[in-house]
Amino acid sequence: MADNTILIKNALILNPENNIEGKKDLLIKNDLIDEIADEIPEDKADKIIDATDKILLPGLVNTHTHLSMTLFRGLADDLALDEWLNENIWPVEANLNGYYCYIGALLGAVELIKSGTTTFSDMYFYMEDVAKAVDESGLRAVLSYGMIDFGDEEKRKAEIEENMNLFKNCNDTADGRIKVFFGPHSPYTASEELLKEVRRLADETGIGIHIHVSETQKEIDDVSAEKGLRPFEYLDSIGLLGPDVVCAHSVWLSDREIEIIKEKDVKISHNPCSNMKLASGIAPVSKLLENDICVAIGTDGASSNNNLDLIEELKTASLLQKVATLDPKVLTSDEAVAMGTINGARALGLDDEIGTVEVGKKADLILIDTNCANMVPDSSNLSSNIIYAANGSNVDTTICNGQILMENKELTTLDEQEIYQKAREAIDQLKKAI
Ligand SMILES: C[C@H]1O[C@@H](n2cnc3c(O)ncnc32)[C@H](O)[C@@H]1O
Ligand SMILES: [Zn+2]
């Protein structure tokens, strides 16, 4: 196969943790970053991208999504989690099929690419249809099937089989861009037996676990009443927790639970917009970071957010910690950039491959246009400009695995107008079925 070579010229690089000063050229060969230098000759590449007035950073990593729920944007607003899920979302989801999940995932993929996310970790249903959308979009994804058994043994077996089939059929597909995790929904919907079996299978297969934990005060009360322990204490007592577990939300945490998270090297996916919109609470993120816990970022689904703009999510995360602690110095823009890139990569076990701009890593890169009203004057602090001033619509170019998914704000892999049309038709049909 002939080499795919792309040369990005004159880029200001914003790298989490080890920044590279000054303008650089970056050469992509096939799926990898091949060279970063002051000047790389143009004849080394088939394709040249001029990054003058643009900031180059690693593709963003969204560690908690339900991509097909992009179809449900605006469906049930201004409700708390319990009423939102039980009385609104689950009744609609009972009418889902593979096609709806595929179209919803394509719609979400358009939004992710346009706002600079190149990797996302998803938990939902009809995941082989979601995998098809991932394959077509060119994105990178960690996919898990949302397992819910409510203590029913038959259902438990079927749910585990579904996640295992997803693993067998989709893990390492789409040129290696798709990985599969287990997705037990939460400690209040997945039984102890299911969670223990997931731990056993995770050890056997080496794949990770994606779960919602400690999202609301109600969850703490319910789990404590049933198990006599708070959610993280309970999950620890049954042996579920470890470095391969990514816990979404994690809002209500005791000091003992923070110790457990640290001891077990559990990864946290912080979802501030969803937590604010459902009035779930404020996660103690600055305390987690002080304890050197890996905190990554996630949007949750577009039905509780209501968008998938990770730059907006990172700004929200930062401002929310400042106001919650009354300390403007917490969750700085540098920490927010790390949260959206390398911490996400670490949470998903992909930090050898993505999360920084480095030779040898996958070419998952985005360019942000600074020649826009909300980005002028250029700040000498690139992370400040990205986190506090920018939003997803400033993303100009998105590259994943060395493939250009968007250039000059034009998508290359997906037909956005066709997807919008099909998504509108799908949600109209679904609403009629309810
Ligand atoms: C996979 C299932 O998870 C549901 N879901 C979506 N967002 C949340 C959330 O914030 N907490 C709990 N469960 C959630 C989704 O609707 C699927 O049923
Ligand atoms: Zn969720």
Automatic annotation (TrEMBL):
Catalytic activity annotated for this protein? S-adenosyl-L-homocysteine + H2O + H(+) = S-inosyl-L-homocysteine + NH4(+); S-methyl-5'-thioadenosine + H2O + H(+) = S-methyl-5'-thioinosine + NH4(+); adenosine + H2O + H(+) = inosine + NH4(+); 5'-deoxyadenosine + H2O + H(+) = 5'-deoxyinosine + NH4(+)
Example GO biological process term? Answer: S-adenosylmethionine biosynthetic process
What is the superkingdom listed in this entry's lineage?
Archaea
Where is Zn(2+) annotated to bind?
A: H64, H66, H212, D300
Enzyme Commission identifier(s): 3.5.4.41, 3.5.4.31, 3.5.4.4, 3.5.4.28
One example GO MF annotation: metal ion binding
Q: Write down the top EC class of this protein.
A: hydrolase
| CDD domains linked | ATZ_TRZ_like
Cofactor(s) demanded: Zn(2+)
Q: Per UniProt, where does substrate bind?
A: E93, H185, E215, D300
Sequence ranges assigned to domain Amidohydrolase-related in this UniProt record: 55-404
Q: How is the cofactor bound?
A: Binds 1 zinc ion per subunit.
First and last residue of the signal peptide: none
Which one Pfam family would you cite for this protein?
A: Amidohydro_1
**Pathway connected to this protein:** Amino-acid biosynthesis; S-adenosyl-L-methionine biosynthesis
Q: How does it assemble?
A: Homotetramer.
Family per record: Belongs to the metallo-dependent hydrolases superfamily. MTA/SAH deaminase family.
What does the protein in this record do?
Catalyzes the deamination of three SAM-derived enzymatic products, namely 5'-deoxyadenosine, S-adenosyl-L-homocysteine, and 5'-methylthioadenosine, to produce the inosine analogs. Can also deaminate adenosine. The preferred substrate for this enzyme is 5'-deoxyadenosine, but all these substrates are efficiently deaminated. Likely functions in a S-adenosyl-L-methionine (SAM) recycling pathway from S-adenosyl-L-homocysteine (SAH) produced from SAM-dependent methylation reactions.
State the name under which the record lists this protein: 5'-deoxyadenosine deaminase
